[in-house]
Amino acid sequence: MSLITNTEDGQPTPGDELLTASPTGGLPHPGPQPVPLPRQRRPRLLLLGAVGLGVVGAVAAAILLAGSDEPAADTAEQETIRAVTAEQRDLIEYQDLDGTFTYATTSTVRAAGAGTITSVAADGDTLDRGDIVYEIDATPTVLFHGDTPFYRPLVEGDEGDDVLALEENLASLGHHIEEPDEDGDEVDTGFVVDGVFDGPTADAVRRWQADLGLPETGRVELGAATVAAGPVIASSPVVEPGVTVQPGAPILNLSVVGTGDVFYADRSGELIVTAAAGPITSGDVLFTDDGSPVTAIVTDDPFDRDLSLGVEDGDDVLLLEEMLVSLGHDARGDLVPDEEFDELTTEAIEDWEEALQDTWDDDLPVDGILSLDQIVIVPPDAAVETVVARDGDVVATGSALFQWDGDGRQRVVTTAIDVADQDRLVEGESVTIEFPDDTEVTGVVDHIATSTSSDPTQPDAEPQLAVEILVSDVPASIAALNQVDVEVKLVDSLVSNATVVPARARAATADGGYAVEVVDGTTTRFVPVETGKFADGFVEVTGIEPGTAVVVPS
Question: Whole-prediction pTM value?
């Protein structure tokens, strides 16, 4: 062991606490009681290696203590030490909240009726429109896309949004047409996606039932389909084949991994799709109807009236004017998008209609009026994924012209915070999310519940508020996973511009204080310090300056 003191000549002074350090750089600790020392110490060779915060200069890589009478070849007292330079940095302490990383939209599928489970999707299965989610008594429940649940049996004569959703899915699955005839042409059955359960709709239901191997009744029973916004991943099945369930019993969870929609032809005839695969922007001509171009307007807002001079101001007017300006039809630069339909708006529409004439059909009207049959409303972030009908196709009523995909893969972290700590999180605020592989990403607090929840198994626990945090930058190692345990790191305290060293560099002294071993020329000495905040393996210290080389025990 090498005896080190804080004196320049190596001799202890009254009141000194002696500290010892192992030749291999072990953590210093309070040493023995003072003992007489020889006037000349045996030299030790300091081999300094840089680690941690800063780099100790190479000039200190191997130093022989000055004034030694020992030959350099005598290395019995060689010590290898590792040193860092104390730095100034912000020191942050975190409070960690347990969270679960999953898809934004997850729902529990429940049994629509009583019976025995004969099949169920496995954990991790990806299901798309028309796929079987589970079966009870060998009767399947399939996945449909949409946002309207099926809450009643559907029969001929019914009308409503649920009928519309049924027709959209039947059309997307190809059940709106008869099998190709002997010439290979698809037979138009008169099926229309209009929310009315008529004869052609019933016939389409029978074709769907035949495809599933079910009795062809033309009636859709409750539980025949479950609805999600798009493709899903099955997770957490709570039943397995052979289990008997009652109505309302949980079966499994479905996490939406994409959203989309399909544009359907509302008549048979020469409807030619002009859209190409890729993002849709306002002003794109998506298809033609008997030669008349139909243009996309991208919006989530209502757009359900014709627009002409004199209509009431509204957001739809603003959207129209923004589209016209983006296409270069701005009434010679005088049109400023607002909510008012005035003469400049009329002039811009006429200019746009003349451009459509030049491109598509000389007989198109130029009247300065926007009619609903001239446009199709497309949700934001939509992109054409699959073009079904192409130039020259004559399509049947209800045919899918193209499918667009929207932004439906949003990932979230769900967590909860004690009511007493609710001011620690603010909606719209950024927080750090740490994944199991130590990757950290930034999330944004999207929602904080306004009512509390509690764990019935822990009656003494603090009431908590549920929290959802949106995550857009997903680590590649996690992207394919559905449910992952993560930590939400909340800033507990912050010290700006603190002088910090690795926490392992701190040594306890006999008087209850702390010291650090610093490199002083060709030797080392212990310097008393006061410690402050700890974070990420570092500790705030006062008593040394930034840039001081500090020994870190191995």
Answer: 0.60
